[in-house]
Design brief:
The protein has a single domain, classed as TIM Barrel, CATH 3.20.20. The chain is 49% helix and 10% strand. It has 17 helices and nine strands. The strands form two sheets. Strands 1-4-5-6-7-8-9 form a seven-stranded parallel sheet. α10 crosses α11, α11 runs parallel beside α13 and α16 packs parallel to α17. It is globular, with a radius of gyration of 19 Å.
Length: 342
């Protein structure tokens, strides 16, 4: 392995500097990505291993990042589950047969990754070969709650009415649904590890719509089981957004590293999570649209909050936003490395 800084940080070991990678680091802010996107749909890019490999490598070739993350989407398992997924122009993911009844839940199939997402596993193998040990490769999956919310709502949502209605009106079948998704997510992550992923991240991007008591009862047991299914094979990053008010409960789900957004100070979050775990974050992605000196100032502040403690991985509090200036991304990565040299 050429650069093990990221892996060391995941394990809580001392590093020469703070490693940095960025959620959605392969994406629409890069002209190289858009050149491919002009010829292929998003799902075509995900389902064509050679294209997924090329897009995964674009930011690695452009910036001095400390980790690559496979180009994919948390919704890729849906087709094998019997869910019909489209990516509508300017609308994002659209599910044309949302799960709204007991019969819908009964019909959901637990995927076989080798049969249902072979293209993803092949892409991971291609990327590992292309990286040739330069940096580690991250695999990922949507957490059970976030994946369930997508298939129930039929896409994005502002208030999660359908999801919460199922929880409140039929908790028995909510638990049945989450049990199925938990099983398939464990299989999905382990297949990625078998293919070569060296770290996995669980994205619970929508968990923040819940209060702490509902999270503990209806989400926590399933996220915990997914993390346990990896069984220490590789480090796990447990990421969620808008959950800063109940980090202590999130910690119970497990994970070697907790990902936090910018709505909580990194030093306060780490103290509440406990220094026995690593932490990832947590620059506001919109900072990259502002002046570079201001962005660098905020990078320094976050690194100061981490105080050089082993286990910090620098990242945004969520994914890079469409239109982010490429030069600002480069300046961010370079600033993290420069300011964090031990």
């Amino acid at each position: 392995m050429g650069n093990e800084t990221f892996l060391k940080a995941c394990r809580g070991e001392a590093t020469d500097y703070t490693p940095v990678w960025l959620m959605r680091q392969a994406g629409r802010y890069m002209k190289e990505y858009m050149a491919i996107k002009e010829k292929h749909s998003f799902l075509e890019m995900c389902r064509t291993p050679e294209l997924a490999c090329e897009v995964t490598m674009q930011p690695i070739n452009a910036f001095e990042l400390d980790a690559a993350i496979i180009f994919a989407d948390i919704l890729l398992p849906l087709e094998g589950m019997g869910i019909k997924l489209e990516f509508a122009k300017n609308m994002g993911p659209v599910i044309t047969n949302p799960v709204r009844s007991r019969a819908d839940i009964d019909a959901i199939r637990v995927i076989d990754p080798e049969e249902d997402v072979p293209y993803l596993l092949e892409a991971i193998k291609l990327v590992k070969k292309e990286l040739n040990g330069k940096v580690p490769l991250i695999g990922f999956a949507g957490a059970p709650f976030t994946l369930a919310s997508y298939i129930i709502e039929g896409g994005g949502s502002k208030n999660y009415v359908h999801t919460k209605s199922l929880i409140f009106s039929d908790p028995e079948y909510w638990h049945k649904l989450l049990a199925k998704i938990t099983e398939l997510t464990g299989l999905y992550l382990n297949a990625q590890i078998d293919a070569g992923a060296q770290v996995v991240q669980i994205f619970d991007s929508w968990a923040g719509c819940l209060g702490p008591d509902d999270y503990r009862e209806f989400v926590l047991p399933y996220t915990k089981k997914v993390i346990e299914s990896v069984n220490g094979r590789v480090p796990v990053i447990n990421f969620s957004t808008s959950t800063g008010t109940y980090l202590e409960i999130l910690k119970e789900a497990g994970g070697d590293v907790m990902g936090v957004d910018w709505k909580v100070r990194l030093d306060e979050a780490w103290e509440r999570i406990g220094f026995d775990k690593g932490i990832q974050g947590n620059l506001d992605p919109t900072t990259l649209f502002g002046p570079v000196p201001e962005m660098k100032k905020r990078v320094k502040e976050i690194l100061g909050q981490a105080n050089g403690r082993p286990g910090h991985i620098f990242n945004l509090g969520h994914g890079i936003i469409l239109g982010t200036p490429v030069d600002n991304v480069r300046a961010l990565v370079d600033a993290v490395h420069e300011y964090s040299q031990r």
